[in-house]
Write the structure tokens for this entry.
Amino acid sequence: MDLRDFVRVLRRQVVVVIAALVIGVSCGAILALTTPQRYEASTQLMVAVETATSSPIELTQGNSYAQQVVESYRSIVTSTVVLEPVIEDLGLDLTPDQLAAKVNATVAQRSVIITITVGDANPGQAARLANAIGESFTTVITEQLEKRETAPAYRIRIVPVQPAQVPTEPAAPNLQLSLALGAILGLGAGIGLALLRTLLDTRIHNLNDVETAVQAPILGGIAFDPDAAERPLIVATHPHDPRAEAFRSLRTNVRFLFPPHDIGVFVVTSARPSEGKSTTASNLAIALAESGYRVALVDADLRKPRLAHTFAIEGAVGLSDVLVGRVGLPDVMQRWGQGMLFLLPAGTPPPNPAELLGSTAMKTLIDDLKAAFDVVVIDAPPILPVTDAAVVARYATGVVLVAAAGSTRAGDLTDAASRIEAADSRVLGTVVTMLPIRGADKTAYGTYGYGALART
């Protein structure tokens, strides 16, 4: 995934990222508002070493000795021997362990200064505790741990450097820090969730996804139209609409698929239902007829036929009746409009659609259509639920596979292409419908002519 893909993922999942960011900031604010106020006061004590002489060598050795023992002394600050006198002197209702939980002693690297920090809800109490602990610590070190009968080579002395002052600002809660941390964590979680959703989402969203799923050229892209159901025959009813122009571009590309010195027979199908294959077949046939071709549009979806309803023609008798020999082909072909488009509806629903479409009668019918027309467009059922499209594709030039952006899964599209190839046919190309006209996956197919709609 390169930077462009990463940005596209973030734009596609922008709602998730923003929601996680808002949740993170909200959690930071709640944490800050519910955290009790705590003031911190600090005192600094230096561990000094007295030597018998003041020679440079002994001073250096003494300073090195102080750095060695200061870490051990730091751990004594929170010991019972230091904290019990403080509890008695100040009359605290605390145990040494409870008081130790409020105390933090630190030593900087290669330093001999111990910083004792005490946190408390009362700022004055925090300062008193810090100073009292510092005094108790000094007493324990000088009068107990370092008090010896014989004169040592080095004598430890605790020197107060900075007494604790009463703090004026609370150390916690830190609202700005909590909000910043919440924002960082929320943003990180949102980006991670966006990437995870993208990895788990196998639907196609753009042309690149289709090219990855099927090794076939993209013949065209049709932008999403919320009113497509009300105007399915867009090429005829709204010839200047951008979607009509997209179907004419598809017609131009399909013309390059015609076999040399032969009639083009194209099966239009999809992997699953509701992906726009019937609308694509209908408008492609109209566009071909507009350019002067004699076009036969065959409704081979004998299970759920749609073309008769879409074109508002009589569909009681049609393809199935011709295949069983009930009527002749010329008797059921219906001319549509004033052009060169002729329709063959599905006819009576048969109990065995796949057997009829794969029969020799179907091959004979296609041969008859090739003799009478310049191009034959066959609207076939989705290929994954049933085998109808695969069996009829054997008699065709090839298959135009339709996929819907945001709906068709890449795995389904790959499986559909495999089934077509297994039936001794081939995928001539793909058509991507319902392309977004805005957002991260917007393409030239989705933006051309839709500028005003995209801005609204």
